């Protein structure tokens, strides 16, 4: 038995429905509404659900009610274990949030028949039913007569919106549910099999147009909250990003390699690619999100103050992590030396060439790094030699 945390719950259960349910698959549509309602509920008691499927349908029940004797949820969960030979697959699910129309949360594997025996042995006695009507009116009534009492009030207060059975011993029920939670939390985490949403053909065409316009750049294409790179770009980017190389399906076409990074992490992700000496182009919603030129990372030919010394950048070797510079303080005696890329880059950024401060709203005329360096140097006051200290008599001798 394993657990799956922070997953698309409906997608996980759909796999079981597809492989195990032969008829009445429409039951799962009801389950989806229950799951979403639990995710959106502020009441913690409504979130843990016990779900199971069998060859002829599915059921989604409230865990709190399953462990109270005589409730519909309690009787339903036990019935197929005690009265049939149906093969049932069960899960405990904890819906947490709804993101982009999908319900995310935790899914725990359980053995259906063992859990049914556990429910039979550890359930607590009921006390009364609590019914909430459409207008907010709440009725507490004995379990056996609550249905008749509700029917008499429907005309006045509208239909019943919620039906809950309360236990005689609330502390005993809380203890049972705590033990259930502790048991499932100890389950080992399942190995994640990473699968990506297919790339729609229309989106593929948009990507191909961007790639055609920027053939030499690593094109990062926004999809489902990620910036994705495809094909040869993905193969080059994966080791730079430290990410896995996966497969992206495209309808009617062969799948292609893909890797990438979250949109929220675009600064770190694009910087890893850019500092390798590659042009990087980020595209989102058909527009330029960010464009980084390799030549701007270490601007060859530009002059730069490195540790207070005026230098010219002669060449950069990304593979060797080396920048070749020339000390041009003394024009008659230029001195050539080398530094690491990261060291020189820190001075490039100090000169005002950091590019991650803002996301461009519109595509505007782009100032190059060299122009920025020139502007910075023009704005600096002219260099004046430091005054010489007068020598003492001892120094003169």
TrEMBL record:
Transmembrane regions listed in the UniProt entry: none
Cross-referenced InterPro entries: DNA_mismatch_repair_MutS-lik_N, DNA_mismatch_repair_MutS_N
MF terms (GO), sorted A to Z: ATP binding; mismatched DNA binding
A biological process term (GO) from this entry: mismatch repair
Region named Disordered: 370-397
Superkingdom of this protein's organism: Bacteria
Pfam families attached to this UniProt entry: MutS_I
Every DNA mismatch repair protein MutS-like N-terminal domain range: 205-291
Protein name, entry field: DNA mismatch repair protein MutS
Organism (species): Ligaoa zhengdingensis
């Amino acid at each position: 038995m394993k657990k799956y945390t922070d997953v698309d719950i409906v997608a996980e259960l759909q796999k079981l429905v597809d492989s195990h349910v032969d008829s009445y698959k429409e039951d799962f549509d009801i389950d989806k509404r229950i799951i979403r309602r639990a995710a959106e509920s502020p009441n913690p008691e409504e979130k843990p659900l016990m779900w199971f499927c069998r060859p002829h349908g599915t059921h989604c029940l409230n865990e709190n009610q399953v462990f109270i004797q005589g409730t519909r949820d309690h009787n339903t969960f036990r019935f197929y274990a005690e009265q049939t030979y149906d093969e049932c697959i069960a899960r405990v699910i904890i819906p947490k949030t709804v993101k982009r129309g999908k319900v995310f949360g935790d899914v725990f594997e359980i053995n259906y028949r063992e859990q049914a025996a556990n429910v039979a042995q550890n359930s607590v006695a009921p006390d009364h039913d609590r019914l909430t009507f459409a207008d907010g009116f709440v009725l507490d009534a004995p379990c056996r007569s609550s249905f008749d009492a509700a029917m008499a009030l429907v005309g006045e207060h509208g239909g019943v919106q919620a039906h809950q059975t309360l236990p005689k011993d609330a502390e005993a029920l809380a203890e049972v549910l705590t033990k259930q939670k502790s048991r499932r939390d100890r389950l080992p985490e399942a190995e994640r099999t990473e699968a990506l949403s297919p790339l729609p053909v229309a989106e593929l065409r948009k990507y191909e147009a961007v790639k055609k316009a920027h053939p030499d750049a690593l094109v990062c294409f926004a999809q489902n909250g990620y910036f994705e790179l495809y094909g040869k770009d993905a193969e080059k980017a994966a080791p730079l990003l430290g990410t896995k190389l996966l497969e992206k399906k495209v309808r009617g076409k062969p799948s292609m390699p893909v890797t990438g990074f979250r949109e929220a992490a675009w600064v770190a992700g694009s910087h890893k690619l850019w500092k390798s000496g590659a042009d990087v182009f980020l595209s989102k919603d058909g527009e330029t999100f960010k464009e980084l030129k390799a030549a701007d990372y270490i601007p060859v030919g530009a002059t730069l103050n490195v540790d207070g010394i005026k230098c010219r950048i002669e060449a950069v070797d990304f593979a060797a992590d080396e920048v070749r510079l020339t000390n041009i303080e003394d024009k008659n005696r230029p001195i050539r030396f080398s530094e690491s890329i990261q060291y020189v880059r820190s001075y490039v950024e100090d000169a005002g060439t950091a590019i991650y401060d803002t996301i461009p709203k519109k595509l505007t005329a782009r100032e190059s790094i060299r122009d920025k360096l020139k502007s910075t140097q023009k704005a600096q006051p002219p260099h004046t030699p430091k005054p010489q200290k007068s020598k003492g008599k001892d120094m003169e001798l």
